[in-house]
Amino acid sequence: MVKKAAALFLVCASIVLWVGCASTSSRYLYAAIPGSNQIVAYREDPNSGILTQLVGSPITAGPAVEALVIDPSGKFLYAANSGEGDISLFQISTSGTLTEVTPRTSVAPNGVAPTLLAMDPAGTFLYVGNSGSNSISAFSISASSGALTPVPQTSGQVAPIGVTPINMQVSPSGGILYVTGPSTGIGLSGVIEAFTLNQGVLTALLPTSFFYTGTNPYGLAVSAGGGFLYTANNIDDSISEFTINSDGSLSQFASPLQVQYAGPLALLIDKSGKYLYVANQATSFLTGYSVGSNGALTPLTSSPFAVGSGPSVIATDPGGNYLFVGNQKTPVIQSFNLNTGTGALTSVATYPLPGNPTSFAITPKP
Question: What is the spatial distance between Cα 93 and Cα 201, in angstroms, rounded to a whole number?
Fold first, then answer.
């Protein structure tokens, strides 16, 4: 049941949920496990990519915790609880431990089932994709406390988008929010919607905010320079490639690229911007491409890379030297060394999870 809107003042729970192990690094990885209402926490060794699970992890999170995001300072972690209709705020200690700040922030009454989170690069605003109400909620973020304050939209408390949001990302400039939605009928394409952002208020890009892509574009990636956008089309087994124009609109510059392995679900562009990786959920493979100066994708000669069954989540560490893959058919995290010269991936280790992961969040480089 979606709770009524909570009071805006925050009461710090002051309950440290576990005591983290001693570390020489303040870099941590968190994984959302909605099936067990948990967040699993690891210390990442920046020299090896090895993960060490923190003492007391996993912790109990909100009902059906679906998505995670960390602010640029590395002090606050936000979690979307789709089963409760609210957002959790956790303070991150220097040892990686999490302290929840209560009460949780509700997306009700107009938002239902929050499943996606996106933050602007400055860490000033948090955007929440509500899959149960086909809408986006926006919140301003307190730099000192991490507290969330709702930002009213022009049409009310939330911005209706007309489709179920299945992925979203803020542009590197912070000025545009891109949201993907599934096809609305047999034979129809999926869509990308674009919204300009002004102090947290969404405005549909004009003259059109709709751009058509492949069927069920679950994967979404924007290049670091903000020049190109890609979608992984799960039903079409393809990747769509777009140029991002100066006004934020999209122009598809090539026919969708058919992928060799079925069920592309997640995309990631590495920190250097030279490589794009695809998690092919219907297989046990990750595929890799080099990204040309014109945005075109070329398969890596070392690709594909064997992973566990059902890869569905990809993340990279702040240094760009390691890549982490979450698998849903065999619930594990796999750590890979990323060769920044060739894009090749080499397995480091595999770590079991208590359930299927849906989101990873990694603290920024200290």
Answer: 31
